[in-house]
Amino acid sequence: GILPPAGGLVRLLPPGTGMMVRGGEPGPLTPESGAEFAFRSRYALEGQTHAAYVVHPPCAGGNRGAVYWERTEAIPERATLDFYTGRPPGTGDGGDGVVFSVEVVGTAAEPATRTEDEKRLRAGEPSDMDVIFREAPGNAEWTHHTASLARWAGRTVRLRFNVDCGPGDDAHVDTAAWGDARIVTPENRDVAPGPMAWGESWLSERSFTSTFYFGQVRPGKAGLELLVESGEPVWIERLTVHGAPDVMAREFDGGLVLANPSPRPFTFRLDELIPGGRFHRLQGSANQDPATNNGAVVGPRLTLGPADALFLVRDQGSEDLGDK
User: Which pLDDT tens digit goes with each residue over 132-187?
Assistant: First the structure.
């Protein structure tokens, strides 16, 4: 996947995760607890979409408490934490709700002074003074939040994002989501998170070519993040990157297929791509997009819209040049 803009915390590479059962210490997620954690590159609530981590607190086998994810980050000067919280439709209709909270639970840098609160931070012991956000929403939509990180400027801290099952320990409808969490500074404040760009491929014992197209990457530098769901060694050979729309044309005996996966229109020059070839559109029925498949002859140039494809039929007597 392509890394989000600077400061992005919701990304393909998993964060640290865990859960805290009532009366216990933080520990790993366990299947028998019912706690869940999942990455969603696009998670929509009430028409608004964000890259998200979708979670559910422990709810099975008598387990109740909170589920969390966390990342260790260096905090710049004048930084704030910017994020969205949300719940799927229907989750607020029963139970006692959930409680979202964000904590600074430890630092990797030695504090400059010796106050009791800083000692807790050095030891990684959370306290009420370390909670920088806490809310129990009641609606099924994305809600935007900010929290100051000024207190930890210049330090490397561990940010923990918790979802608790609620004061009544009723966890049967407690799915919740964190969207597009990021550390914001004056330098990146005006850079929108943008859609998450990622793809996946299977692996085998033999080398083969995989191609990934990221149509939403902005101009400039971009970071590439690789996640391998395996414990075995993996070899990556001849990795290349190209700034191109990745349009495709495939010629067959009876016609031509064109595809444009990019977010912008692209004009195919058929006279140069297939010299001597003549094509026309399919003749579609009333239920087959007759405006596109109208049987018309196409000219030497054809413009295809964003994220679109087109089948063309070869005219009789047109030169057959085979696959291209």
Answer: 999 987 667 899 999 999 999 999 999 999 999 877 787 778 899 999 999 999 88
Pairing of the two strands 279-281 and 308-314? antiparallel
Helix (H, G, I), strand (E, B) or coil at 33: helix
Tokens 């840098």, located at residue: 109
Give the whole-angstrom CA distance, residue 21 versus residue 29: 10
SS3 69: strand
Q: What's this model's pTM, rounded to 2 decimal places? A: 0.70
How many Cα atoms occupy the beta-carbon half-sphere of 240 within 13 Å? 6
DSSP secondary structure of 4-18? PSTTB--SSS--EEE
How far apart, in whole angstroms, are the C-alpha atoms of residue 12 and residue 195? 12
Largest CA distance in the chain: 87
Report DSSP letters for 209-265, one per residue: ------TTPPSS---B-----SSS-----S-----S---EEEEETTEEEEEE-SSS-
Q: How many CB atoms lie within 10 A of CB 136?
A: 13
**How far apart (Å, rounded) are the C-alpha atoms in residues 10 and 4?**
8
Residue with tokens 């129990």: 136
